[in-house]
Design goal:
about 40% helix, 4 helices, about 90 residues, two-stranded antiparallel sheet, about 20% strand, alpha+beta
């Protein structure tokens, strides 16, 4: 689901950054390589702690200045419901 949402938003010209964490470093690196696009690895969990993330997937939408405009914990199984929930 994350890959599908990223693909749609990227086609629309919306910048997307995927951050992965909450797993063993070797598993994160292997999964990131399999995705085939850039992924930031949060191996020490700093991003998750700082953002107050309690589960995955967790989406954060920011404006161009980096201010958070919406959040969503969990995901729907299709792109459009996720977009509606995030307001994008």
């Amino acid at each position: 689901m994350v890959a599908q949402l990223r693909e749609v938003l990227t086609r629309e010209g919306r910048p997307v950054t995927v951050v992965m964490g909450m797993d063993e470093p070797a598993a994160l690196e292997a999964h990131a390589r399999d995705l085939g696009y850039p992924v930031l690895l949060d191996v020490d969990g700093r991003v998750e702690r700082d953002a107050g993330i309690r589960g995955v997937p967790y989406f954060i939408v920011t404006d161009r200045q980096g201010r958070i405009v919406s959040r969503q914990a969990g995901a729907y199984d299709a792109v459009e419901p996720n977009r509606r929930a995030l307001g994008i």
